[in-house]
Write a structure and sequence with these properties.
14 helices, five-stranded parallel sheet, alpha/beta, eleven-stranded mixed sheet
């Protein structure tokens, strides 16, 4: 019962109106007519004689009748007022009903609009999620499909453009180490990820150029590519609001010619491995290049810096072109490696250190052959490869007597002919037959030096179970020596891990071309497995990482990246001069001295 009462209380209450029926109105009219006729008859009968008293009575009766009629009129007026009130209530109710209907219609329209927006938002989310999933696929075609789906989504939905740009930038930031996964060195071409990354850069640039057709320009766009590895990045002619390239690596040429940065442009600690072209670029806000390194030409000709620029600790390793863009006082702050370093300026007195060149801070960079017995150099043509080997030869000869160090020089092109003194020269190989015969002798000598079971721990520690000079096998143009699967240096392979025990040092220099493929086989592979130090110089970045994750790049002759266990640094190689140390020794025919053991 309580529930029934509550339900009745919750029902909407309505006002009940009593309405006179037509029948009741006719009944009332008939009664009034009959009553009026009866009264008139009675009045004529009772007061129709005409004397004064009766006339007075008739006037009284008329007065009373008038009152009655007035009362009836008042009643009629009351009825009219009631009818008017009912009409007004009906009209008001009609207005309320219409307002309620309008509200219901508006609510239905709002619900329909919300449903449409929800459907559109859901469809947008589904398209976005699908495209992002495709971009993360392992298949190249699916990745490219996801990329262009995102591009189309941004083109059709202006409100989503910055979000899509953020997604593409985040994709590029996934690759931060100049991309060991970009290059398939065995095929010598950019791999799948590299092609996708280049396509992402092209999509970004296509929508940042104000002259792009069909309303494809996306204004007020921010780029955040801090720490990313960018392949052949071309943003020339673009207009960007803010650009974050802090610690980014530009592999290959970086093009920003004619680009306008309307907000901050941050290139602090960025690495440009090849030419950096900022010709005609405009920086409307502050440009920051603090600690940036330019390994190729830096071209800032006609660039405009509206709010100043910062180049503190920036390093220019090749030529730089600023025209009138750089204030003279700032130009004096820019540091660069020297382009020519005589060997005499880097020579050290340390017995087991062979000087190679100088670093950016001016200190000598050396090869410690007592710690790392082997050394590898990957350098492009005409980049100072032979000069480096001559410097190493000079360092060995200056620091060790013939009783301590002998050199076996493999030089098919005879570029170092006569450069090793006769008393230090064990053998000079200029052809495969000579080299094969010499290495067989070396193998036998090295085997005699291997410690046997009778060698004590003290002898192992002091390396005193054999005596004789260390052997330095120096190979120039190793790409000519080891061709395909034929590796004449194979007899040395078994001794490379025990080089310190047997006094063997292998110095190998070759061109960067096809070096990535060569690292996968033979003696070079063994040296790579041993984390052999060395240098990487000029070459095509498509070769991929060669030593310690370092890629070849566009470097001027004599510029290389020194790779050690402790890290990497860019250096300028020492120049030891073209003059040979001594005339060609008498054993140039290929005869070799015995290596005592």
């Amino acid at each position: 019962m309580e529930n029934d009462g509550e339900s009745r209380d919750t029902e909407p209450r309505t006002v009940a109106y009593r309405v006179l029926s037509i029948r009741m109105i006719w009944y009332a009219s008939a009664v009034i007519v009959v009553l009026g006729v009866a009264v008139a008859v009675w009045l004529l009968t009772a007061f129709g004689h005409g004397d004064a008293q009766e006339r007075n009575q008739l006037e009284a009766i008329k007065t009373a009748g008038t009152i009655v009629v007035g009362t009836g009129g008042a009643a009629a007026l009351l009825l009219a007022a009631r009818r008017q009130r009912s009409t007004e209530i009906g009209l008001k109710q009609k207005d309320l009903d219409q307002a309620a209907a309008a509200r219901t219609h508006a609510l239905q329209e709002q619900m329909a609009e919300d449903t449409r927006l929800d459907a559109a938002e859901r469809r947008l989310t589904e398209l976005y999620s699908t495209a992002v999933d495709q971009l993360g696929s392992e298949r190249l075609a699916v990745q490219l499909g996801g990329l262009y789906a995102l591009e189309r989504l941004g083109q059709n939905s202006p409100g989503q453009r910055q979000t899509i740009v953020n997604v593409l930038c985040a994709y590029l930031r996934m690759f931060t180490d100049a991309a060991a996964d970009v290059v398939d060195s065995r095929e010598n071409h950019i791999g799948q990820q590299g092609r996708v990354r280049q396509a992402v850069g092209e999509v970004l640039a296509a929508h940042l150029r104000p002259e792009a057709p069909d309303h494809r320009f996306w204004p007020d766009t921010d780029l955040d590519l801090a720490g990313a590895s960018l392949l052949g990045f071309d943003l020339s002619g673009c207009r960007v609001r803010s650009a974050g390239f802090r610690s980014a690596t530009f592999v290959g040429k970086a093009s920003f010619g004619g680009t306008t940065f309307t907000d901050a442009a941050a290139f602090a600690s960025a690495k440009f491995t090849a030419e950096a072209d900022f010709t005609g670029a405009r920086f409307e806000s502050r440009a920051v290049f603090t600690a940036a390194s330019f390994r190729g030409d830096a071209v800032f000709t006609s660039a405009l810096f509206d709010d100043g620029l910062e180049f503190a600790d920036a390093v220019f390793l090749r030529s730089s072109h600023f025209d009138s863009a750089l204030p003279p006082e700032l130009a004096r702050q820019l540091t660069a490696l020297p382009t020519h370093v005589p060997y005499s300026e880097v020579a050290t007195s340390e017995r087991d250190s062979v000087p190679l060149g100088v670093g950016i801070d001016g200190t000598p960079v050396c090869w410690r052959h007592d710690v790392d017995p082997h050394f590898v150099a990957f350098m492009g043509p005409e980049s100072g490869k032979t000069t480096l080997l001559r410097t190493i030869i000079t360092g060995i000869v200056e620091r060790h007597t013939p009783a301590e160090a002998l050199i076996m020089l493999v030089d098919y092109r005879r570029t170092s002919l006569g450069y090793v003194p006769a008393d230090h020269l064990l053998a000079y190989a200029v052809s495969p037959p000579q080299l094969g015969s010499m290495l067989e002798d070396v193998r036998e000598s090295m085997r005699r030096r291997l410690p046997g079971p009778e060698v004590t721990q003290e002898q192992l520690k002091n390396r005193s179970w054999w005596s004789g000079p260390d052997l330095y096998v120096i190979v120039d143009d190793a790409d000519l020596v080891s061709v395909g699967d034929d590796d004449p240096l194979e007899p040395l392979r078994e001794f490379l891990p025990q080089a310190k025990d047997v006094g063997l040092h292998l110095v190998l220099a070759r061109r960067t071309e096809h070096a990535g493929e060569a690292l996968g086989q033979g003696v070079l592979k063994k040296l790579a497995d041993l984390a052999t130090p060395g240098v990487v110089g000029d070459g095509d970045f498509l070769e991929g990482p060669l030593l310690g994750g370092v890629w070849p790049s566009a470097l001027m002759p004599g510029r290389v990246t020194s790779v050690k266990r402790a890290g990497q640094e860019l250096i300028q190689l020492a120049w030891s001069g073209p003059e040979p140390l001594e005339a060609l020794p008498s054993n140039e025919s290929g005869d070799s001295k015995p290596v005592s053991g």
